[in-house]
Fold:
Amino acid sequence: MPKIKIEGGHQLTGTITVSGAKNSVVALIPAAILCDEKVKISNVPNITDVNDLENILDHLNATTVRKDGTIEINSSDIINKEITYELSKKLRASYYFMGALLGRFKKVDMYFPGGCAIGARPINLHLKGFELLGAKITEEDNHFIIEADKLKGNNIYLDFPSVGATINIMLAAVKAKGKTIIDNAAQEPEIVNIATFLNNMGAKIKGAGTSTITIIGVKYLHSCFHEVIPDRIEAGTYLIIGALLGKKLKIANMIPNHLEALIAKLTEAGVDMEIGIDNIIINEVKDYKAVDIKTLVYPGFATDLQQVMATFLTQCKGKSLIEETIYENRFQNLLRLEKMGAEFKIAPDNRIAVIKGKAKLKGTYVDATDLRGGASLLVAGLIAEGETTIDNISYILRGYDQIIEKLTEVGAKIEII
Ligand code: EPU
Structure:
């Protein structure tokens, strides 16, 4: 099995260019099958989640052509059949085929999605939304058949502003008859990116990016060209790396507005950043002080940056408190960081951790347990004394485009072995 080997302690200088957003593209690709013609999407990151979605499209007889960061999807000859257990389980975002196939064919046959084991991650809100649009759901042993004679717009209130449920309901509702209103909708930038894509195809969606989204159903969706927004989690990861090792390190092709909570917390810790329109420069590493973070839905502090931030906090002087409010199991990385020399305590409910810094991290063998936890270990390896070997790296490659190449380019000693 391939592993990542890192020799820690090297200063990083130059420019890291951020790729297209994983959590946007993984919804845009399933959304493309709602189009009655061909669509083209650009700024597509080279990550394994995209390959897994291509395999599902191939299984459904849709064609894809991927070249130079673009993907062209033609689903004119798509066949609506069961998405097998193996294909559904590969990734979390396979669940976007629920909304997309329901919208297009009024029927979906697939299994419970996969994804990182960071909590229970139920899909009850997605299913509730489909039912309110008129669908009937049959579930047995994690196998779902969702079907409707016809889909009819409705008022849908989400008990929690779930990213997945908001997008999935939008996907089904664009082809439903009449008006759908989603209240307490998620407001993440990825939601806006998907709504813009659908509107470019002729959908009528208003309010994406706010807590109330209104969708008027349409019969036909036409060809369009669309660009994936920059990945705010990838940008945030490199910003944190820059704070720990950067010397005139520029993070380019990013949207600083999408990272306000992280920028505020790094500033509070003492990180000195030059914030441009589409880039941030970190001039030098300083001594940092402890800060507390609490994960929240957007625009709060992103849970997807919590684990990488934990590595940063091991380097801040004093006690930092992390409160994880989104997932029940997102501290698995801390046990690996402990092997490297980090000091922390986790509360019995697994929702609060206190990190004591500044710790001297030492390279060792660690295994990634999930995507962002893997990234947290990788950042630790970059700052640790000596050599770090990371196992289970498929988690990291699922979500970070060319991470080895990008870091090598700015001076890191990192390779896949
Ligand atoms: N939830 C429910 N019921 C539902 C849906 C969600 O209880 O029907 C709960 C979840 O269990 C969780 C919380 O609501 O505790 C948030 O879930 P949400 O639905 O918002 O997340 P998601 O759609 O499953 C996406 C990203 C995650 C990211 C979250 C939050 C994708 C494929 N995944 O997940 O990304 O953490 O939104 O921003 O877009 C990652 O990139 O590492 C990652 C895990």
Summary: The chain has a mean pLDDT of 97. Residues 22-23, 26, 92-93, 116, 119-126, 160, 162-165, 186, 303-304, 326-327, 371-372, 399 surround EPU (CB under 6 Å). The CA atoms of residues 167 and 191 lie 6 Å apart.
